[in-house]
Task: structure prediction
Amino acid sequence: MATLEITGASKRYGGVRALDNAHLKLKSGEVHGLLGPNGSGKSTLNKIISGAVNPDAVTIELDGSPITINRPLDAHKHGIASVYQHLSLVPHLTVEQNLVLGTEAAVAGFLSPRKQRQRIHEILERLEPGLGPRVRPDTKVSRLGPGQRQVIEFGKAWLKAPRFLVLDEATASMHRDQVQLVFDVVREMTAEDIGVVFVSHRMEEVLTLCQRATILRNGLNIDTVELENTTDSELVRLMVGDELAERVGSAHVTNRVEGSTAVLTTENLSAEGISDVSLELHPGEVVGLGGLQGQGQSDLLLSLFGANPATGGRITMDGAPVSLRRPRRSIRAGIALVPGDRGDEGLYAKRSIQENISTVSLAGRSLLRTFLSMGKERSVAREQVKAMSIKIGSLDHPVSSLSGGNQQKVVIAKWLPANPKVVLLDDPTKGVDVGAKAEIYSIVRALTEQGVAVLFNSSDDIELEELADRVLVMYEGNIVDELVGEQITHSALVAAALRVDEDPEEMPA
Result:
């Protein structure tokens, strides 16, 4: 049995300890989960394996013999491939060109792609259920959706014929059917003795796919467990500790103000991706958007924020008609948006944490919209960091230096000084750990306690069950069903999304 073993992995970034003597042993033919909160060292360990990060110390053994990995090419030579949540694709190139990027077949400097092209067609044929029939080798990647791009990224690693494969949040942007396809292919790979490291913040994915799991916390190994002998609650406790574990899965409490006038309504709202959408949001209410992903949920949120201008219908705020054709108008009306892609749409990655927190409400604190008090800006940023429990080194550090969960909390924190009436959340816990999820849930509940209305899209049915007072189920840009209170169950959500009559015995687990 082939093995890839990492021991004594340590890495510091300035004063931050990312890994401290961490270890991981991967066997051929197994899917090994790597679990832990954001900032626990999972991605750092994976990047050491793939050669993207040079550690302060590490020993790597392949089949019992020491090897050195200083760069991605070294990992490739040893049969190690990686897929990350953040893509390495080049949008203006074709699917085929992206698949072979960096590993193009060549003879005497000239490309000889016959065998490689044959393999590409085999891979694309196998991945077609997750890509759709219109995606061909000559299709530009820029024309693909996020889930399709992630499937291509997976295919790119598969084409390298690895002995060991690292999947680091590789399913985060995928729809349910795409995730299932990748799982099927991974099982085919392990049947051929390929070993897989799997990272996902969706616990059900880990439990479905993995046989063993190693848990990290604060850069340290906590335990390695056989998943069939470990309960969900014990895994959560190992990942986040006793205190946060008590906050995960807490009972749903509604803060809707009974008898209140709707803070926001839409009547037959239409825009790109949505048609004839009518809804009401009340103060203190959490309304979820359910259904299969890509059915207009994000389009609706963008339309309410003015980034996807309405082509028909009517929007009112506090009973008065409003025109929300630009984000600036929506912000003035009291609407905030936490977008689905925090990296590209929610943050200025190279700017400081302080600047990111200040960006929305800056004008409201300036004198004559010209003069700023840096002391006041710093004070506001400190207040939000404390209130949101954002783990930082310094307010002056770039926001890109934070873990994914802390970055997401910065995206939310920047809106709070503006005192919004309505907060729109687009898959707010995608790519964050179970501890950060619990903290974000607490933030949502705190907002509703203050009378803020929350409308959120989620790819996680468990999240909809836990947070939502109501769930509006979308299909092809329309609201086709509404579930309220105790009606919001996993089986009911799946049935409504698939537009079938609910039969608990037939609902997927």
